[in-house]
Design brief:
Elements lengths: L2 H19 L6 H15 L5 H16 L5 H4 L4 E7 L4 E5 L2 E4 L7 H12 L12 E5 L5 E5 L9 E5 L8 H7 L4 H12 L4 E5 L5 H9 L8 E5 L11 E5 L13 H8 L6 E4 L6 H9 L7 E5 L3 H13 L7 H11 L2 E7 L5 E12 L2 E11 L2 E4 L5 H11 L1
Helix pairs in contact: 1-3, 2-3, 9-10, 10-11, 10-12, 11-12
């Protein structure tokens, strides 16, 4: 057994001793002192450096997140994925890689989960075996435990960037080119309603945040998110966040309810972090009845699929509207679809921009910009309506 494994085993044993010997009402500062005293008594043969390391490991298991602490302290880590006790993965620079970190048992993972959720007033158990939450720093947490997770508790932490990537950062990273950035900036200022589409982890929220930076400073913006991630720099921003139901199943506030409420708040723009349910109908209504220039994201594999998914989500409202009426509303509401993808090497890139045009069957995506091989290509000229609105903004 190597030194690190031996220290881990000893730390686990000392933590159990600590729990058995201690009262439950000890303050955290007292707990630190008791850990040091316990290590000095039970591991006196170790040198000072080893004892200090052992104190840190016992402390992590007592009130930290155990072996996850060094990963969460690493600014290069964007996501931490715990797949049961034996496998911890991270995402760095868009690439997923396995770490040397591991939990000893399912109970150790459960203890880490409890230490995350308890201060937030949330919990998971057999009756409610999955949970979404947001840490105080803005990081997103998802938990799912047995019996739904077959190989042990699963914990996913999406790290929050305190300083979001700006439009110039996305140019440096290759997400978009300067000409595309300038085109989209003009589109936002011209109050075109823009839908950002892409798969999970493709960078939709980052691009949405960068697009919102082009909104003029004098406008009132209302942001609506399931988990607050957007960081707009304008002076007049109202941030709203949905609320899940309590442990008793009460108090839920949905994205749809927040979108409806936002219409009464005199917004110039509405920015929805992600449309994923019946709120799509309310968002379409807002976009087509005076709240043009709004922005939102949706999960989809292409611009055309994004429009179809928006129609499907709007139908989930259950109002019995004809499909044709929903399609007409999509055609009226959305002007541009910006599609983003995560490439094989981990980079995120805007791979298509499409104008929404009206055809006999409803809305269609007419691609203006895309990638051919390894270079961007402007595939079609702007439509007359789009060109006129952009020229009016330039004037």
């Amino acid at each position: 057994m190597d030194t690190a494994a031996a220290l881990d085993e000893l730390a686990a044993a000392l933590r159990e001793r600590l729990i058995a010997d201690a009262g439950t009402d000890a303050a955290e500062g007292d707990l630190h002192d008791r850990i040091r005293a316990l290590v000095d008594r039970e591991a006196a043969l170790l040198d000072a450096a080893a004892r200090a390391e052992l104190v840190a490991r016992v402390a992590e298991r007592s009130f930290g997140l155990g072996p996850l602490e060094p990963l969460l302290a690493d600014p290069a880590v964007d996501e931490v994925m715990v797949n049961g006790p034996g496998a911890v993965w991270v995402e760095r620079a868009g690439r997923i890689e396995r770490t040397e970190v591991a939990f000893a048992t399912d109970d150790d993972v459960r203890h880490a989960i409890e230490r995350i959720l308890a201060p937030l007033g949330r919990r998971v158990d057999e009756a409610e075996p999955l949970c979404d939450a947001r840490l105080p720093d803005g990081s997103r947490v998802n938990v799912i435990i047995p019996p739904l997770a077959l190989d042990g508790p699963v914990l996913t932490i999406r790290r929050f960037r305190r300083h979001g990537l700006g439009e110039s950062d996305l140019v440096e990273l290759g997400t978009w080119s300067p000409p595309l950035r300038d085109f989209l900036a003009r589109a936002v200022r011209a109050r075109l309603s823009i839908l950002v589409s892409g798969g999970t982890g493709s960078g939709k929220t980052t691009t949405l945040n960068a697009l919102s930076s082009f909104v003029p400073l004098g406008e009132r913006i209302v942001t609506i998110e399931d988990t607050a991630e957007l960081r707009l720099q304008q002076p007049h921003v109202v941030r709203l966040e949905a609320r899940p139901p309590s442990v008793e199943g009460r108090g839920e506030v949905t994205i749809r309810r927040l979108v409806r409420n936002a219409l009464r708040m005199r917004p110039d723009r509405i920015v929805v972090g992600e449309v994923r349910g019946a709120e799509a109908l309310d968002m379409l209504s807002a976009m087509s009845t005076g709240h043009d220039g709004s922005l939102c994201t949706v999960h989809a594999g292409s611009p055309a699929e994004a429009l179809r998914r928006l129609e499907t989500l709007a139908l989930m409202a259950g109002l019995g509207l004809p499909h044709a009426a929903i399609r007409e509303q999509v055609a009226d509401a959305v002007d541009l679809v910006v599609h983003q993808a995560r490439l094989a090497g981990g980079a995120r890139r805007v791979v298509a921009v499409a104008e929404v045009v009206r055809v006999a069957g409803g809305p269609a995506a007419r691609e203006l910009y895309g990638w051919r091989g390894d270079r961007p290509v402007w595939r079609a000229p702007l439509g007359d309506t789009l060109a006129r609105r952009l020229s009016e903004e330039a004037a």
